[in-house]
């Protein structure tokens, strides 16, 4: 029997535990569907994140990881960024060695899979440049008649230029999957799609080889993740919003740090470390409050399984918690798009917005209510995960 090759574009790095969780879920689904997985990294082979993610992914899965034809990371000085931009343009024109390698890989694949995430957004020049690079593998797939699918996505606002850039690639995909209903309805109406199907975030499909932890008897462990970044983590929020987040989280921690509760402030993304440390440093005199840094999604799943509740500003802290059977409360900025309310609505979990924080006690009151009914959601969560994974595999086999 000939092996079937699925080329996954692009895989993310380990700086963000949620991004790596998407990788693991995508690879798991493809392997369960009978494919050998070849993956194109978001990073070129000279980048440290390529080396780290290659080692990490092959700890859990047998895959081949190839270098990105672009330098898609947002680092470097102005001169380096100009050089990166010029190289990217030449690559999309098929004029670099990297583009020729990608063409060979895609043309020899049985299927190309556009990785899941929050990639379908466009309202400015930086988004247009990003989309041009992201859609390049799909452009190659169309040229060489390699079938492709788009794994579960969320969307934010897509302006008319963005619509013109990606409409063809959405409509000519074998299937377009979304990870929540709000994005499903938005993309279906915005592009008049007939090939779109609802699903859930790929991180839900991880099969952890680490057993869930054991909850402490008589102690409620509550984890909190904090975020102060714009959509796509492009920039940090301004001082007023940054400080507002700090004060609201501190207020919530103080409300919950009582009796035998243990409160853990968790930085599961490197860009969240500073604000998480800032909050902890102002609260660490209380021996019931702890701080941890962890970007490994497998370790996070185990840790969240040991919690009785997670309050999250990072969506994947909530997803990995739900995966391990732990109830959650969301706290979001509206600019982060449809993904957050969409996922929370699907699993019937409560959430609040930064813009509506007039009642500072609301999150802690909701958390206390969930702690009293901790186990009532587990069966529904497991049923949703099994149903959506089976459906996704059926469409890609």
UniProtKB/TrEMBL annotation:
Q: At the top level of its lineage, which domain of life is listed? A: Bacteria
Q: Domain Polysaccharide pyruvyl transferase: where?
A: 16-330
Key word Transit peptide present: no
Has UniProt tagged this entry with the keyword Disulfide bond?
A: no
Q: What sections of the protein cross the membrane?
A: none
Pfam families noted in UniProt: PS_pyruv_trans
Q: Which UniProt keywords apply?
A: Transferase
Q: Which GO terms describe its molecular function?
A: transferase activity
The record's section on PANTHER family has: COLANIC ACID BIOSYNTHESIS PROTEIN WCAK
UniProt protein name? Polysaccharide pyruvyl transferase family protein WcaK
Q: Which organism is it from?
A: Virgibacillus salinus
